[in-house]
Amino acid sequence: MLLHEIVERSAENSPDAPAVIVEGRVVTFSELEQRVERLANAVASITERHERVAFLSENTLEFADAYYAIARVRRILVPLNYRLNPREWVEMLDVTQTRVIIGERALLDALEPHLPRADAGSTDNNSASAPSKQTFVLIEIGGDCAPGRIAYDDFADGSHPERESEIATDPEETAWILFTSGTTGMPKGAMLPHRALIAAAENTALGRRVAEDDVYFLAFALCHVAGYNLLIMHSRARPVVLVKRFEADEFLTLTKRHGVTNTSLAPTMVSTLLEHPEADDQALASLRQIAYGSSSVPAEILRRAMQRWGCDFAQGYGMTELGGNAVFMDGDAHRRGVTTDPHLLTAAGKPGPLAEARIVDDAMIDLPTGEVGEIVIRGAQVFSGYWNDPASTAETIIDGWLRTGDLGFIDSEGFISVVDRKKDIIVTGGENVASREVEEVLHRHPGVLEVAVIGVPDEHWGEAVCAAIVPRSGVEVTQEQIVELSREYLASYKKPRHVVLLESLPRNTSGKVMKHVLRDQVAVILASR
Which residues does the UniProt record annotate as the domain AMP-dependent synthetase/ligase (predicted)? Predict the structure, then answer.
């Protein structure tokens, strides 16, 4: 199956069923199929086969169209993270040699001054952050568009004929280039063929069952791999309530209005919802399951949420290079976690039926049960490689196995626990400290709203443990309290030697803490002390 065939099949079987609910508008599968075809034909009329088409927007109906339309005509969708700096967008456009950009007006306004002009002098052309000189085509979503741009509604108006020869038929062709989250450094363009995206959606639909009456609330950005939840629900002809970004008040309103049964939230969204005075089990009466991913939810927060809302929790573990999640932990395992088996609250789950997982050492040799090593995953959902980066591809895919860069172990029941990112292990005085372990303990402090633990340079120890904390409003947090709490639960060498209080943690669109950015922020603060 290919991406566009998801919509075609659901439109054939359930033409009048709602597919997307966005900004008060309900779009049926029949209407979505027509929209996808119109956009696909329009794109084919101005591009060459396998050409890249960028999308720069928050969550919109047009973005949902593009998920299926661009790859339908053998072009490649390049979602751009709307939260990045315009210079970062330009760099991604340069890397992928993309000249056609569809986007919202404010974002195109921010981008356009940074685009090199085809008639510009040679100085700009030598800039490392500028794409090679070419004529860019900017297609603007919304009403009246700025001069020099094409209005989206005029562009995808159905006037372009379909060319049968342009319709995708090969599941191995690249459908999307998604840039990695860049939590540890410069993002890379992951090439996701139809095969990988379809397999990821199917693996999740099997690992986290979709009911016949499910209504899904999508709060994650479509520019992120978590947007694949759109594919999952549409593959089962179920509707998606699409919002630009997560707002607790809007979530409560739309859940009640549309009878939302399922959603996926980042840990920060769960925490925000817990703080909302009206987010009780009555307000969320229709909600049956909250899935979470991007990082683990601290055990204390999970216990509070499960007790307060009474719905199931499910975890998904995956990454951009997997097209979505490959490991799942269901509601039963979470209930065990809050009753008889607390260790399960820090587990990621078991591989879905279409994926395999192993724990290996640096030589890709399997490690015994319970021993920490790198998590590697194999399955049809593994990406095909990094765009124009064969060296990184060869380091990441070994004989079909994806090296995740995450450290973890598998217990006797087959549950995988993620200990840390390889790059987030802190080596202090010759001892390894997993930042996640320290973070779990610090979340026990009533004044800690958010926390990220990193290593900072130390002349004596090599690295020292540093806790960056966002305190809860009105509750005092001191270094003495943090150290005392750490002593109670952790080995002495694991306790934070530095505590930094921040208003917020730097996060990417999926809610992951960008620790390389955090390290730079903390370095400045510590240098001033």
Answer: 8-387
**Residue 176, H or E segment:** strand 174-179
Tally Cβ neighbours within 10 Å of residue 167: 15
Provide the terminal-to-terminal Cα distance of the chain, rounded to the nearest Å.
58
Q: Whats the size of the chain, residue-wise?
A: 529
Q: Is the Cα torsion angle 136, 139, 140, 144 positive or negative in sign?
A: positive
Q: Are 412 and 208 contacting, i.e. CB atoms less than 8 angstroms apart?
A: no
Q: Kindly list the structural domains of the chain, giving each domain's residue range(s) and its CATH number in brackets, ordered by start.
A: 29-169 (3.40.50.980), 193-421 (3.40.50.12780), 433-527 (3.30.300.30)
Nearest to 228 by CA among 239, 236, 238, 220: 220
Pairing of β 312-319 and β 324-329: antiparallel
Six-digit token pair at 420? 């840390």
Give how far Cα 55 sits from Cα of 12, 116, 198, 365, 384, Å.
28, 18, 21, 41, 21
Task: Please tell me the distance from the alpha carbon of residue 495 to that of residue 307, in angstroms, as a whole number.
Answer: 30
In this model, does residue 128 exceed pLDDT 60?
no
Reported as a single tens digit per residue, the pLDDT across 215-269 is: 999 989 999 999 999 999 999 999 999 999 899 999 999 999 999 999 999 877 8
Burial 121-156 (b: 16+ CB within 10 A, else e): eeeeeeeeebbebeebbbbbbeeebeeebbbbeebb
Task: Provide the strand spans (E) within 334-435.
Answer: 350-351, 355-360, 373-379, 385-386, 397-398, 401-410, 416-421, 425-428, 431-434
Residue 528 is encoded by which pair of tokens? 């001033």
Distance CA 208, CA 513 (A): 26
In percent, how much of the chain has pLDDT > 90? Answer: 73
Token pair belonging to 306: 């499960």
* 197 contacts: CB under 8 Å, gap ≥ 6: 3, 175, 176, 228, 231, 323, 324, 381
pLDDT tens figures, 375-421? 999 999 999 999 999 999 999 999 999 999 988 999 999 999 988 77
Residue 463's pLDDT band (boundaries 50, 70, 90)?
confident
